[in-house]
Design brief:
Elements (H helix, E strand, L loop, with lengths): L6 E4 L2 E4 L34 H10 L7 E5 L2 E6 L2 H10 L6 E4 L11
Antiparallel strand pairs: 1-2, 3-4, 3-5
């Protein structure tokens, strides 16, 4: 039987949010997936300033001019011309929460005076 449920970790023990219909001392196998806490304006949690991603763009992006890139930290997961394809490639490569950026190709026309 497979069952998906929510639990809270308290005092070193996982406590199901809702009661379970299992016999006492039943052994189970757990797979944990943690959810990030929602942020609020009063949150004391540090926000991600994308420092690593910005450093990658500054130092490594030149070969990707005019392309979309998918980054997590300082790691490039995918690049290409189509954002949807880059997103799918990043997911296939194992990216969990990438940021997407289009790298400037600096080909703006000169406006002159």
């Amino acid at each position: 039987m497979t069952l998906q449920l929510e639990a809270v970790f308290e005092n070193g023990v996982l406590r199901p949010v809702e009661p379970l219909s299992l016999p006492e001392h039943q052994r189970v196998t757990l797979t944990l997936a943690t959810e990030p806490k929602p942020r609020s304006w009063r949150s004391t949690e540090p926000w991600n300033p994308l420092t690593e991603e910005m450093r990658w763009i500054k130092e490594q992006s030149a070969p990707y001019a005019g392309k979309w890139v998918a980054l997590e930290g300082y790691r490039l997961f995918a690049s290409g011309d189509d954002l949807v394809e880059v997103g799918e490639a990043a997911k296939s490569a194992g990216a969990i929460d990438p940021i997407f950026a289009r790298i400037s190709d600096n080909t703006l026309p000169f406006g002159g005076w």
